[in-house]
């Protein structure tokens, strides 16, 4: 299908991009295009203007900022996956980015574009939520920080305002003693996750001292599994972990579609959370 007519601009700076975006409420940002272009072809989106930020070099790259890692919005999934800074400072993102679609999409799709698209079936939103990332939105009036817990508002809807562009994300470093894993259930390598689980676990004296769990495709936004996090505190690796992970589907509203019904997704959430926690904790 042919997309509807739209204007196209390629600004030379972030300030110019924000100005172009703010001047038209129906304008859309074009980054890697791996999410937006299919929507255009299917006429699920009708932007009056595309603002192409693909050549804004200052939005690309990974930087170690001491207590956190800054990832530019135009950094590709492949760059996130291979970055030594990401692998050392926030390994969960490297593990998750490696499971995004296929190599072709990972080389073209962008970290910020995937997050701004706010698809609850996307892999990276849950990982950033589990790590308490902070989104940096740029506009003509300056920058605004948005905690991950406040960024995802609804299905395909973020808290970005008109004229704002996601410039980057700050990921706090958790430090030593943490283990990470992303567990994903999907039909094919290129398919969206039917359910996914991002897990960060800190062990102490043979038991779980702290856990951070976020779920993919278990509601209109990525979900932080607080009930599981609480239930896992002080638990020794073994059957107690499985019992704690029964709470994984609590306070979720999984969708029903051609791939799975809500009950099946709730079952998957429990099973995959158990696997992710054990893998993150280094259990066999």
Mean pLDDT: 96
Radius of gyration: 19 Å
Please tell me the CATH architecture of the largest domain by its name: 2-Layer Sandwich
**Number of DSSP helical runs:** 12
Q: Strand order within the widest sheet? A: 4-5-10-6-7
> Biggest β-sheet, characterized?
5 strands, antiparallel
Question: Helical proportion?
Answer: 25-40%
Determine the structural class based on helices, strands and strand pairing: alpha+beta
Order of helices and strands: EHEHEEEHHHHHHEEHEEEEEEEHHH
| N-to-C span | 49 Å
Strand content: 25-35%
GO molecular function: FAD binding; oxidoreductase activity
Keywords: FAD, Flavoprotein, Oxidoreductase
Protein name: Carbon monoxide dehydrogenase
Pfam family, one: FAD_binding_5
Key attributes of the depicted protein:
284 residues; alpha+beta; Uridine Diphospho-n-acetylenolpyruvylglucosamine Reductase, domain 2; Enolase-like, domain 1; 5-stranded antiparallel β-sheet; 4-stranded antiparallel β-sheet; 14 strands; 32% helix; FAD
Give a quick summary of the entry.
The protein is α+β, with helices and mostly antiparallel strands and 284 residues long. Helices cover 32% and strands 26% of the residues. The protein is built from twelve helices and 14 strands.
């Amino acid at each position: 299908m042919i997309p509807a007519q739209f204007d196209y601009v390629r600004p030379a700076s972030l300030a110019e991009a924000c100005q172009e975006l703010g001047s038209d409420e129906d304008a859309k940002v074009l980054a890697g295009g791996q999410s937006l272009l299919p929507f255009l072809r299917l006429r699920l989106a009708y932007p009056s203007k595309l603002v192409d930020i693909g050549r804004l070099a200052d939005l690309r790259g990974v930087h170690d900022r001491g207590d956190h890692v800054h990832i530019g919005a135009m950094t590709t999934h492949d760059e996130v996956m291979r970055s030594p800074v990401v692998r050392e400072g926030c390994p969960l993102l490297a593990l998750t980015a490696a499971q995004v679609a296929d190599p072709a999409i990972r080389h073209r799709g962008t970290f910020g574009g995937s997050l701004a698209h706010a698809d609850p079936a996307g892999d990276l939103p849950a990982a950033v939520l589990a790590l308490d990332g902070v989104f940096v939105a740029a506009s003509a009036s300056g920058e605004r920080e948005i905690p991950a817990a406040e960024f995802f508002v609804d299905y395909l809807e973020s808290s970005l305002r008109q004229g704002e562009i996601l410039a980057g994300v700050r990921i706090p470093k958790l430090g030593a003693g943490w283990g990470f894993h992303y567990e994903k259930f999907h039909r094919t390598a290129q398919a969206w996750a039917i359910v996914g689980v991002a897990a960060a676990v800190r062990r102490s004296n043979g038991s779980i001292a702290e856990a951070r769990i976020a779920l993919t495709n278990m509601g209109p936004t990525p979900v932080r599994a607080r009930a599981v996090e609480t239930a896992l505190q002080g638990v020794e690796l073994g059957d107690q972990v499985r019992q704690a992970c029964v709470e994984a589907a609590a306070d979720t509203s999984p969708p029903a579609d051609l791939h799975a019904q809500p009950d099946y997704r709730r079952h998957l959430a429990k099973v995959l959370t158990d696997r992710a926690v054990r893998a993150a904790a280094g259990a066999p």
